Amino acid sequence: MTPFPPEPLEPIHDERLFRQLRFLVEIDRLKGVLRRTYLVGAERLENSAEHSWHLAVACMVLAEHADEPVDILRALKMVLVHDLVEIDAGDTYAYDPAAHVDKAEREQRAAERIFGLLPEEQAQEFHALWREFEARKTPEARFANALDRLIPLLHSIHTGGRSWRQGQVVRSQVARRLAPIREVSTALGEAAEALLRWAVDQGLLPDDTAQGPTHPCPDEGPHPSMAAPPKPTPPSG
Fold it and tell me: 208: helix, coil or strand?
């Protein structure tokens, strides 16, 4: 029988510090969660930790384009925390309706376990940040969510639409996915729409809008576990 390896954190006798260090070790696993977007200039898929880092930098760079005042520090906290649940729940592809059926349940269980590794008040803070991001009720959450939609668009157009082709994604799906960006920033919304038109013109994305959209984009509303819905998303097009 193979004995269990020793606990590397055993020398830490301060319980609070022990829990904090154990959490930091645990979230390293986010680097192993692969998304469906490809890295620009590389052949491999992006992982969720890289995505979170990219969103954090985008928060700093693009904050000036928000149409309403945004607490950037809080937005930064949200983008760094929002995908930690994927350690257990995995990444859910935005254009896969079947994967969204049990997404809320999977992510809620993951949030309870992963954030529960922290000391109580920090666990509550991280859980609150995650819920705020998913609910999209505050300016910071709406801004963070807008960037979560914009950055994958940049990836897709700079990698030849590869992930779109593999997912059989069409214009109407991407348009609905991008629509909430304009609610947060006129400038970023217009930029996203211009990039979408360019992608279609370049043949990176099939245009299905002549007959009207027929493909679902399930990731539209707030996380189903949130108590109240956000304001309705305006129709695209």
Answer: coil
pTM score? 0.85
Which one, of 141, 212, 206, lies nearest residue 174 by Cα? 206
Q: Assign 231 a pLDDT band (cuts: 50, 70, 90).
A: very low
Distance of alpha carbon 174 from alpha carbon 216, whole angstroms: 10
Average pLDDT for 28-53: 96
82-86, 94-98, 113-117, 163-167: which has the minimum mean pLDDT?
A: 94-98
Q: How far apart are the first and last CA of the chain?
A: 64
Q: How far is the C-alpha of 67 from the C-alpha of 102, rounded, in Å?
A: 34
DSSP string across 25-58:
HHGGGGGG-EEEEEPTTSSSEEEHHHHHHHHHHH
The answer to whether position 167 is within a domain reads yes
User: What residue numbers bound the domain in which 70 lies?
Assistant: 15-211
Q: How much is the pLDDT for 224? A: 47
User: For residue 187, what are its two tokens?
Assistant: 């400038």
- Amino acid in the structure at residue 94: A
Q: Mind listing the pLDDT tens digit for each residue in 174-209?
A: 999 999 999 999 999 999 999 999 999 999 999 999
* CATH code of the domain covering residue 144: 1.10.3210.10
- Is 72 a member of any domain? yes
Residue 95 inside a domain? The answer is: yes
Residue 229 counted as domain residue: no
